[in-house]
Amino acid sequence: MLQYIDKQSHRFVYAVTGDGELNEGNIWEAVMFAGKYKLSQLTVIIDRNNIQIDGSTEDVMPLESLHGKWESFGWHVQEVDGHNVESLRDAINMSKAITNQPSVIIAHTIPGKGVDFMEYDYHWHGYGKSPDDYKRALHKLRTLDGKIKGEHE
Amino acid sequence: MSHYPLADNLYADDVAQEPTRAGFGRGLKAAGEADERVVALCADLTESTQMHLFRDAFPERFVEVGIAEQNLVTVASGMARAGKIPFTSSYAAFSPGRNWEQIRTTICLNDQPVTIVGSHAGVSVGPDGATHQMLEDIALMRVLPNMVVIAPGDSIEAEKATRAIAESGKPSYLRLAREKTPVFSTEHSPFVIGKAYVLREGHDISLLGTGTMTYQLLVAANELEKHGLSAEVVHVPTIKPLDEDTILHSITKTGRVLTAEEAQVKGGFGGAIAELLSERKPTPLLRVGMLDRFGESGAPNELLDHFGLTGAKIAEKAKAFIHTTPQYHRDY
Question: Does domain A2-108 fall into CATH 3.40.50.970?
Fold first, then answer.
C-alpha cells in the first residue's frame, strides 16, 4: 500500500501462495483490494499443484477457471511451467513491466515431482510418513532417480 | 472417598493413551447412527479431525466446504435452522480462530444447535508452532451468550461428550487435542454437560483441571502425597456453564485453589474460576497455563515441560503455594 500512499515506485512485493488456500474468503478480499488500488508492484505466485489435504482441489472446492477469476478482479495473469526456472524468471520480469495492474503468475507444478512414489498423490500434502520415506525421497532427488551419483552417497 | 471410577495403573508408564480427537470421531459416528438429523461439515481436515469415520458411514450427510471457516459455520447455522444437528470441524486455530463473528451472530445469537469442534488445540500440537497452537479459544467461546464450552479430559470422555452434545440442542464448542494423552476415565465414569467431578479427595488444596491437563493434576497430587500434602483433584470438562456447587464445595474444604489448562489463563478456565471465586468465595488462587504469551515450536512433551504444564512442575508450584499461603476463604 506504500505504492498508493507514499507514491513509491521501485519496490516490488512478492507473495507466494498455495492453491488450496485460495478457498479462503480472506484471499479474495485481498485480490479485490489490490485490483481496486492497481497495486502493480505486487506479484502473486501461485503454486498450482492441484492438491490440498483432503484431495484434489477440484474435488474439495473447485478453483477453475483460476485464470478467469483473477483476470475478472483486475489482475494481469500469466501461466507458466512452475518447474521451469527460466520461464518463471521471464514471467516475474514481465510482471515488473505491467504498471497499471497487480500481477499473478499461476505456476503449474506436479506435487512430489521427481519422487515417483509421491508424484500426483495428495496424501503427501500434509503428512511426512516416516524418516525412511524422507530418506528414500531425498535419495531419488539427489541421484535423479538413480541416473547419477549423489554427493551424499 | 471419591466415587469417580479411574483407570487402573494410572501412574504407570504404560497407562493407555489415545488422542481426544479419536474419541470425538467415534462419538460423532455413534451420534449419526442414533439420530439421522446429525450432519457433519469439514474445512479440508477430515482425517486429522477424525470426521472421516462419520463421512465414510454417512457420505450423504457429510459436506466438504474447503478451507473456508467463515462459510463452514454459516452453512451449518442455516442447516441447524432447517432442523439438522450440524457438527463442524477444523483446527481450533482456524475455527473458532478465524470465524468468531459468524459463530457469534449466526449461531449464538440465534441459539442454533451447531457444534464447533476445535481440534489440535493447545501447545501440545508441537512442531507447527505458535500459528497453529490455539490458546485463546476458551476465552473466545466462553464470552459468547448461549455457547456451551467443553474440553474433555481424555478420549473416552470426548466420545461421551460428543454424544451428549448431539442431544443437547445447544450451540457448543468442543476443544480437542492432536496428541495421545493418558486415558484416566473408564466407560463407567460419569459425564454430564455442566458437571464437574472430584477424582481424588484431599484437604490441603483443590487442583481444578480442564481438558487433558486433569491427568497432569492427578500426577501432581500423587507427587504431593509423597511430600505429605493432600490435594483434591476436581475435573472440570464443562467450562461453561461451570459446576459452581461442586467447585465451591471442594474449595470450602481446602481453602486454596490451583487451576490448570493448556490455554491462555487470562479469559480462559483460570479466568472463569477467578470470576467465580471473587464473586462467591474469595480464596487464594494460583493459575497454571499459558501466561499471556504465545507458544513455540518443539516436541509436545518438551513444550509441556517448558511451559510448566507437567504433573511434576505443577506439583512444585503447588507445594510452594501451599507453604506460603494460608488456607482461607470467605463467603459472600
Answer: yes
Query: Which pLDDT tens digit goes with each residue over B40-54?
Result: 999 999 999 999 999
Q: Which residues of B touch A (CB under 8 A)?
A: 42, 44-48, 64-68, 70-71, 98
Q: What residue ranges do the domains of chain A occupy?
A: 2-108, 113-153
pTM (2 d.p.): 0.94
- Say whether A25 and B71 touch across the interface (CB within 8 A): yes
Q: Considering B33, B69, B136, B225, which one is annotated as catalytic?
A: B69
List the one residue out of B105, B100, B285, B306 whose CA is nearest residue B205.
Answer: B285
Per the annotation, the verdict on B69 as an active-site residue is: yes
pLDDT over 80 at A127, yes or no: no
Regions of chain B with pLDDT less than 70: 1, 332
| Closest by Cβ to A23, choosing from B47, B48, B68 | B68
Q: Are B68 and A21 a contacting pair at CB < 8 A?
A: no
Partner residue opposite B64 with nearest CB, options A26, A60, A126: A60
Q: What is the CATH number of domain B18-182?
A: 3.40.50.970
CB B43 within 8 A of CB B69: yes
